[in-house]
Design a protein that fits this description.
single chain; mainly beta; 5-stranded mixed beta sheet
Length: 272
């Protein structure tokens, strides 16, 4: 399956025994700028997209005034019925500035989780959020949860007083959400489960929270004295969490390592 977006062009291909067969090709968007960075499917094969848009006429969305700038983006989550290719729903959320979601997950019970970033201090959150105030100064992470009909049932900020960038998430069977990314904030929120390494210009973070429990946020910080970034994470069936990313730190913390020394050059990868 492949997704490419211009304004916004999607290519959806079904695997065949020999050569993949293209089953649906369609535009998705309005008169403005539309972009989708995340895609997943549910057990029925229906398709979900994590997007951002400033189109006043995005399909299935309430009409709104034309944007004043390209930064007036909203986060958009879209569901497409795989059997018919019909747009089932499109849910917008956002504040007065730039908002986007880029990673998306659907659980067995039909809930949709979308992870992204915001520059809006007035991004809407729910009363049970783990963080209701914008940390700033330029960007915070956001997490939203939607029900099977596309209604937002949970929304929260995630970030400290400097810039923070979430990149990947995984959702456990009990609804616990694990989020990985990078942070420049020494006051990144959440009770500290662990802090590995001396810390530096930016560190990797792993956040764990349960939507609906405002006191559930726990955070691990991982990094050496330079730049460290978590770009992907995954859960196995036993509940073990695995992360991957890159580092510029020669003192990046290691444990039971297959490679315990920085190899040189600009960047090394790390699994964990």
């Amino acid at each position: 399956m492949r997704l490419a977006c211009g304004t916004c062009l999607a290519f959806l291909a079904a695997a065949a025994a020999t050569t993949p067969e293209t089953t649906l090709v369609a535009y998705l968007g309005g008169a403005g700028t539309d972009d989708c960075d995340g895609i997943t499917t549910d057990r029925a094969g229906d398709i979900y997209l994590a997007c951002h848009s400033n189109s006043p006429d995005f399909p299935l969305s309430p009409a709104k005034a034309s944007p004043q700038s390209r930064d007036a983006m909203d986060a958009v989550v879209v569901k497409i019925e795989a059997r018919t290719g019909r747009l089932a729903w499109a849910t917008h959320t956002g504040g007065s500035s730039w908002d986007a979601v880029g990673d998306i997950c659907v659980t067995r019970d039909g809930y949709v989780y979308a992870l992204g970033s915001t520059r809006s201090a007035d991004f809407p959150t729910t009363p049970d959020a783990v963080q209701r105030r914008f940390g700033g100064p330029d960007r915070d992470g956001i997490l939203i949860k939607l029900d099977a009909k596309g209604k937002i049932v949970y929304s929260t900020f995630l970030g400290g007083s400097k810039n923070d960038e979430p990149t990947s998430m995984a959702v456990a069977a009990d609804g616990t959400v694990f989020i990985g990314g990078s942070t420049m904030s020494t006051d990144f929120p959440g009770s500290r489960a662990a802090h590995f390494g001396p810390g530096g210009q930016s560190d990797g973070f792993i956040a764990r929270l349960r939507p609906g429990d405002p006191n559930s946020l726990q955070t691990d910080i991982l990094g050496g004295s330079s730049v460290d970034h978590i770009s992907g994470l995954a859960l196995d069936r036993s509940g073990n969490l695995f992360v991957a990313g890159f580092t510029r730190s020669t003192d990046f913390p290691t444990k039971n390592a297959m490679q315990s020394r920085f190899a040189g050059g600009l960047i090394d990868a790390f699994p964990g």
